[in-house]
Amino acid sequence: MLAAPSRSARRAPVGGFVARVLGAGPTGALAALALVDAGWSVELRDPLSAEALGQRRRAYAFTQSSRELLERLNLWALIEPQLIPFDQLQLWDLGADRVVAFSPADLAPRQARSGSSAIGWIGRHDTLMPLLLRCLAASDAVRLQLGPEAVPDPEASQRVDLVIAADGPNSATRSRLGVGSWRRTYRQACLTAEVSLRGAVDTQAWELLRPEGPFAVLPLGERRFQLVWSAPTGRAHQLESLPASAFLDRLAGVLPDRFQIEDLFDQPRAYPVELLIAHRLHRNGTLLVGESAHRCHPVGGQGLNLCWRDVAVLHQLARRVTCGQLSLRRLGDAYGRRRWPDLLLTLLATDLLVRIFSNRSQALLPLRRLALGLLARWPRLRRFSLAVMSSGPCAIQGSAPE
Ligand SMILES: Cc1cc2nc3c(=O)[nH]c(=O)nc-3n(C[C@H](O)[C@H](O)[C@H](O)COP(=O)(O)OP(=O)(O)OC[C@H]3O[C@@H](n4cnc5c(N)ncnc54)[C@H](O)[C@@H]3O)c2cc1C
Q1: How many domains does the chain have?
Q2: What's the pLDDT tens digit per position in 35-68?
Q3: Is the domain of 194 the same as that of 335?
């Protein structure tokens, strides 16, 4: 059982500015903790109970940008022991038959200096969420309202200084504000399953680029791995409904020979993959944060890290409001200005990766071989690519190839 931080350790000045956070998923929960760290009081609402919030079976790949945020919030020491670090990332284009290995030597100097030799970390939702919820429950500055009765009529709610909409991709808050969104469902769905594998190492993560879609193999420790298998939608749903033995047969058929599957630990689940971007990131004192504002293909494990980079910007701006360096009125505009470049470039980059690598076009093969060949041979290009994957396209000063 994990120890929750003591009340005094997480106490923030109560009073001052008050925010209401709608949605206690991984984005809303961390946004609430970030606001508390910035000196705000927070009311956090979700129609799900604490137990239901912690129950999803999925694992996230965390990048350096998420580590940096957790460090700033003094949460890293608490969360890191629950994460599985990996110090090698193997990018394998099976169509072009090229492999590129990223190692800690490819980290940007700022990240290498941090004393961490990990490129990234894998964390399970069902260990991460209870920990975040315990931190929230331990804070005097948070009023947690969880369960079906926690989402009363927003018109009847007490006024607060700021509303954070972290209520996911089908955000009711976004609709209520009249903020439109641009969304496109990929023809691929994503299938997740937890397996044990021979031929894979606990400190290595793999992104296999297959013609039918990317396939991630993420270490969970003790030879267990989370598979994130993108496949055409119909096939993904068919695979999801297969009995375990038939599913394992299909899996063995698509994995390279070096991986041998030993066991399946859960029922594989398929979920739709879409590109979503809201037309605006704020309106009438409400900010859209996380998947209520954007969603991207899981290739490269960007999704939740991108959500948490929203939280990182919210944290900085909320602190400036607390210190009187930014007026509350201008917070929404400042948030939008800071978030648009990262959001648009990350969504574009993940979409391009899928378009270029998820196909059987012979015409693209020379380009793919050239790109991966250059990456394999040119350390500066690897460092640049890893910095983009780790911290987003807008945080790559000092890592661009000369
Ligand atoms: C089935 C599935 C499997 C996935 N698997 C993976 C994976 O393996 N790896 C990975 O990296 N990513 C995965 N993802 C994506 C990942 O879950 C998202 O990136 C992440 O959950 C986004 O967090 P969020 O907090 O922004 O949104 P969500 O996690 O969607 O949280 C939104 C919260 O808002 C609450 N809410 C809804 N309406 C209201 C309301 N009106 N008022 C208040 N609260 C409300 C919901 O109950 C929910 O708790 C998966 C997604 C799905 C759907």
Answers
A1: 2
A2: 999 999 999 999 999 999 999 889 999 999 999 9
A3: no
How far apart are the CA of 52 and the centre of ligand 1, in A?
A: 12
DSSP one-letter string for 356-389: HHSS--GGGHHHHHHHHHHHHH-HHHHHHHHHHH
Q: Which domain holds residue 198?
A: 186-272
Q: Does residue 46 share a domain with residue 24?
A: yes
Check whether residue 177 and residue 191 sit in a common domain.
Answer: no
pLDDT at 196: 95
Tokens of residue 229, six digits: 């298998």
- Return the ligand 1 atom nearest residue 60 CA: 11
pTM above 0.70, yes or no: yes
What is the distance in A from the centroid of ligand 1 to the CA of 169?
Answer: 7
Ligand 1 site-directed mutation target among 22, 51, 58, most atoms within 8 Å of CB: 58
Q: Can you state the angle between helices 64-72 and 26-37, rounded to 10 degrees?
A: 40
Same structural domain, 278 and 299: yes
- Residue 42's H or E segment, with its range, is strand 41-46
CA distance 17 to 315: 13
CATH classification of the domain holding 130: 3.50.50.60
Residue 26 in contact with ligand 1 by CB distance below 6 A: yes
Indicate whether 6 belongs to any domain.
no
How many angstroms separate the CA atoms of 195 and 229, rounded?
12
232 Cα: distance to centroid of ligand 1 (angstroms) = 22
Q: Which of 272, 307, 340 is the last residue of a domain?
A: 272
Q: Which residues, listed in sequence order, are joined to residue 203 by a DSSP beta bridge?
A: none
The CA 204 to ligand 1 mean position distance, Å, reads 26
The residue whose CA is least distant from atom 8 of ligand 1 is 58
Q: Is the CB of 290 under 6 A from ligand 1?
A: yes
| Per-residue pLDDT reduced to its tens digit, 188-200 | 999 999 999 998 8
